[in-house]
Amino acid sequence: PREEVAYVTCTYRETGIDQPDFLATIDLNPKSPYYGQVIHRLPMPNLKDELHCSGWSTGSSGSTCFDTITTRRNKLILPCLISSRIYVVDVGTQCRAPTLCKTIEPVDVFWKCNKGYLTVPRSLPNGDILIANMGDAAGHGKGGFIVLDGKTFELKGNWENECETPPTGYDFWIQPRHNVLISSAGVVPRIAGRGFDPDDLKKGVYGRRLNVWNLSCRTITQCFDLGEDSLPQSIKFLHNPDA
Asked: Where is the protein situated, by its record's location annotation (predicted)?
């Protein structure tokens, strides 16, 4: 059925407004008097998180978006780009007024994974949640992924083998039917945080490669260097899951 609400992450960072970021719920029902309007705001409990991308938890083992139409996406995963915090939001109980149900603090991410600056979350075929990152706790470049349990949302640890950690990371997408994960390069957070400088492209501050992974072995099988004037970011596969 047609979606009746949309969830949008909203950040106040660098605006001079000292308020927490929030998740906005937008009415998408054309018959509603509030169509196209923000009908609910869920503020986060901390300041200066910088909510970034959001992703669904499928909530059951073996579920992917193209394998079943019965999967209930009732939890939304919100990693934070700057604070490295992770929020889990319940959107299933009241879809028009979601609530915060779990928070994973940065110290747990730093201590258990030596990762930080979290970017994109996606569900794995087994139901667990994979979250990409750009750096380590100190802001040096460090790619890779951390894993959350798909049912308890406990932090499991790093996904990739230690020897396979890329120098930077940002986005990724998986294609389970071909046993492939492709990830893009990111930035060195402690340098890029000062703002975009085109000269930094030649200094290696911005990654410029795509990584091809064996999904089941968690190892890199290919790398593509796209050149010194490139900054590959988003990854999307064709909609046909067999392609």
From this structure: Nucleus; Cytoplasm, Cytosol; Membrane
